[in-house]
């Protein structure tokens, strides 16, 4: 990592070392917010941002994200987690408390098309993606130059469906070696095995080059052109073992018309892919997404 | 028709009685624009607006729309058409010349949900839809009050799939009686028979309550909710005998999120349907759409 | 009011008679959410929706909106307000608790252009504006027909700047007589006196036909045309005694280009005005807006 | 210039060496299109794209852009221009014929904020900006690394208002030396002298970080924040000697809300600036813009 980016991240960490995020998901019932906010107050925490959502006021599921500030939290986080367990048990919560200053370690998988990788690197250099980009993994050499120019490790290994298992075995080793928390498929054109996906539940973010579910599968721009649609879109979603069917994080579209040939649609699409993927990754890094069944709750 | 609307339309006709529109579609070759514009110049016409498009510069198909003004055109339109036939033959054109002052006669088919009908009536009263709304046909009584309050004939006949043929026979009679040029399905929930559709090629405009081809078929909002999409859309298209597969005229979307339940999606969707259908109908009335295969060229 | 609208509103009230909204604004300090949510829990309330915002984590101002459900709230609202006063005092809160079933009474002021009035009436008939439209007041007769057709009182009085005081005296009398809670200026082209405005702080909603502060004052579309802007907008804001300078509630824009003449801009603008005003009124009716200085916090 | 970009541009030139663009502006009268298209036909040209616009059908001004293909045009362009002069004289045209393969030479002026420069370089590397980036000129060293890594000359000279004349003298020398056709101010924070501007009429493209005319002048994001606007915009325009008043080429906006502090607005704004400037530059490079008084006609 280049030194100016390192300094920038360090600066962020120092200025946010008292910040943490609580994510909660549990059956809805009265008293949850009272219990949680009283807990936080007693533990010296000040709520900065709070979002909640109930699927259904009558017997639904309750979701909560609280961003708070508490002196010394970076040292007593373990203790706070221990104390919160009692509240969590009472309400049958699935929950997490994470430190804003504990940067997630990201691996970016890329192939030959670099626009999504470039956008992520650019947003990262601009201080908009607060993460450690631990490694870039590719089955082509195209990205090496830009990646290494930022002092990010670039790992190349040929990949295709015949050697998938062998490749993934190596990739899993790399992911462990680089202590990766989240995998971003930035137009990585290989299908992952069920084993690989299952090992990273809601940790793999993909960008699909269509407004799902409109053109699931291959060649969406070509099919969009043939169908004569007037809008082109992109979808970022978590990868599950149902191809292109994982929980949608973000989508966006752009207007096109009859004059746009397949190449134009691809070009316009690339711009949408860039911004949609960047937003999805940002929300994930800031713990703003809770997955519920096959949907996401995004507290953006 | 209420007298103030009648007056408004008359005013439009008087101020545009010298305006006409030429639509052309033919194999591309050099000299088409030169021939057409020279023809118009020699016939005393001044070009107001001109749009053209070629599918492919090498041996593609050429499309042209010219709006022009010519003194006395309302009287010599037949003569001009006759003269243009020679040019048209030479280039193997499919073509039409229509008078801007010759208002198309519209039939609106509606069922119980009135938001699209209301939007069309509202845009019509505002002078944005230049047409004669000849008749509203429905299988429910819900629209009668608003339609008759504008002095538009409202024709009711019960409809369902068991009596489809009988119903359509009556509807075809009505369409003839009211000399209808274009049929707008403003959330008319009945499927039309192949015979009915074939009798009106590119003359039936439908509004589909999804961003096609995303949720073809029934209950798109429910399915959009279940899929957790982040955008809700609507599509206006010409009706063909492939269900929801006809040439798309216009589409639009609106952003939604996890908090929007099916009812909210419907509500948001209704707003998009209103504007998408109104735009499609407007373009059709102004002869701005050429159908090419299963796509539209919209010179908007 | 037509009976079907009356029934629709009654239906809403019956299904939401246990719902209420708490709005709070106070200096930020730890423990506010804990205190409020514990209060609600102890009073048998279940939080449905909660939004908060702090202008600045260090010594800023804190804003909170909680929508909650509590059995029998419609009967014990007075008691609850009394009990909450203690919490409110401790934190120096400005606050309110309102019943969702207590519909606000709206007066719409209109002149000759009816598109905004029509949109409000339409949204109201569709069940999207939950309010009693108590009266429509105008200095022209144009709106009488549509207003009276819905059985809403229509009050006409000539108005111009020479008789402003006399007119406003009458209007104030009417507002009192019809127990009006909120005034919507739906393209009412008269300037209100400081006295009239001061008597209704943050209770008068205006629609301005430009993207403020771009074209403050008269003839914004003409000036937009002359400046050659590529976007046309509208702004809804609370009226204060600084002309066009009150707190902005909502804004939106639409793309235009060189082909759009002043009339086209007006037309496009009208569509934006309709939706922007309708959204602003809806948020006000649902107690989603808190005014802070010359800005709004909109918990939409 | 890096060799792969050079190759890419060469490839474009070879595949478009028969393409040219005719731009025309003249008083409207019948027969212009007939004369021009007949001229083109007789000179062996095939029209690929054609756009026209008349300010006013009665005695207005007429604008035309035709993109055409003609065998050997790159060699006989001088001859064609000579022949067209007769047509042009007859209709009192202001006109130009340019070769698509003759790439414009661009100078980018930049200061310390690099997001607009980066976007332009990125779009250029992607093949979306067909130009020779001849030189980057700056009063800071921040951009040197990225610019020189692409083998583009980077010229540094300190600048401030006290040494403006001296600086501009040097810059003008550089512009001549590098044979620059168009100057892009990519967040160059210095004001140019009237002499400098007058020497490049409609050749200097600026990006202003607001939706003009909303926040003319300094600190637009701070002022937008204080005004509480709900939309943030950017404007690209040609530079004239009226500060921020030159002909607008393109504008766009993004939605913001009360939670966005000045820093957030700046961040969001930067994204809009990037895309708005890139679009404006692209249209200029493709000869899609005609300036008429203080407005632009953009045949996009």
Question: In a nutshell, what does this entry contain?
Answer:
The structure is a homotetramer of 300-residue chains. With 300 residues, chain A is of the alpha/beta class.
Task: Offer a few descriptive terms.
4-stranded antiparallel beta sheet, homotetramer, alpha/beta, 9 helices, 7-stranded mixed beta sheet, 300 residues
3D structure, described in words:
Chains A, B, C, D: It is an enzyme of class 3 (hydrolase). Chains A, B, C, D: This is Formyltetrahydrofolate deformylase. Chains A, B, C, D: Keywords: Hydrolase, One-carbon metabolism, Purine biosynthesis. Chains A, B, C, D: The active site is at 244. Chains A, B, C, D: It catalyses: (6R)-10-formyltetrahydrofolate + H2O = (6S)-5,6,7,8-tetrahydrofolate + formate + H(+). The structure is a homotetramer of 300-residue chains. The first copy, chain A, is 37% helix and 28% strand. Chain A has 300 residues and is an alpha/beta fold. The first copy, chain A, folds into 2 domains: 17-99, ACT domain (Alpha-Beta Plaits), CATH 3.30.70; 105-298, Formyl transferase, N-terminal domain (Rossmann fold), CATH 3.40.50. A 7-stranded mixed β-sheet of chain A has the order 7-6-5-8-9-10-11. Chain A has a 4-stranded antiparallel β-sheet with strand order 2-3-1-4, covered by helices on one side. The longest helix of chain A has 24 residues, at 262-285. The model of chain A has no long low-confidence stretch (mean pLDDT 94). Chains in contact: A-B, A-C, A-D, B-C, B-D, C-D. At the C-D interface, strand 11 and strand 13 of C face strand 11 and strand 13 of D.
């Amino acid at each position: 990592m280049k030194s100016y980016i390192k300094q920038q991240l360090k600066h962020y960490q120092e200025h946010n070392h008292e910040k943490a995020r609580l994510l909660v998901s549990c059956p809805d019932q009265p008293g949850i917010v009272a219990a949680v906010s009283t807990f936080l107050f007693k533990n010296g925490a000040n709520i900065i941002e709070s979002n909640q959502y109930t699927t259904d006021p009558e017997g639904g599921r309750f979701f909560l994200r609280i961003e708070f500030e508490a002196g010394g939290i970076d040292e007593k986080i373990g203790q706070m987690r221990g104390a919160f367990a009692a509240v969590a048990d009472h309400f049958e919560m699935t929950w997490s408390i994470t430190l804003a200053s504990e940067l997630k370690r990201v691996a970016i998988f890329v192939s030959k098309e670099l626009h999504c990788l470039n956008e992520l690197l650019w947003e990262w250099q601009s201080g908009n993606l607060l993460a450690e980009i631990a490694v870039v993994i590719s089955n082509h050499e195209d990205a090496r130059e830009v990646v290494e120019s930022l002092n990010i490790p670039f790992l190349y290994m040929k990949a295709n469906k015949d050697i998938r298992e062998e490749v993934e075995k190596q990739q899993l080793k790399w992911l462990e070696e680089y202590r990766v928390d989240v995998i971003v498929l930035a137009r990585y054109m290989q299908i992952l095995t069920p084993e690989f996906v299952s090992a990273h539940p809601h940790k793999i973010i993909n960008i699909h080059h269509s407004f799902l579910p409109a053109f699931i599968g291959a060649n969406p721009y070509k099919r969009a052109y043939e169908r004569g649609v007037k809008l082109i879109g992109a979808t970022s979603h978590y990868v599950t073992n149902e191809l292109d069917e994982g929980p949608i994080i973000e989508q966006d579209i752009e207007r096109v018309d009859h004059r746009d040939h397949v190449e134009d649609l691809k070009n316009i699409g690339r711009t949408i892919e860039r911004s949609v993927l960047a937003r999805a990754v940002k929300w994930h890094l800031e713990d703003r997404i809770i997955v519920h069944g096959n949907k996401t709750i995004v507290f953006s």
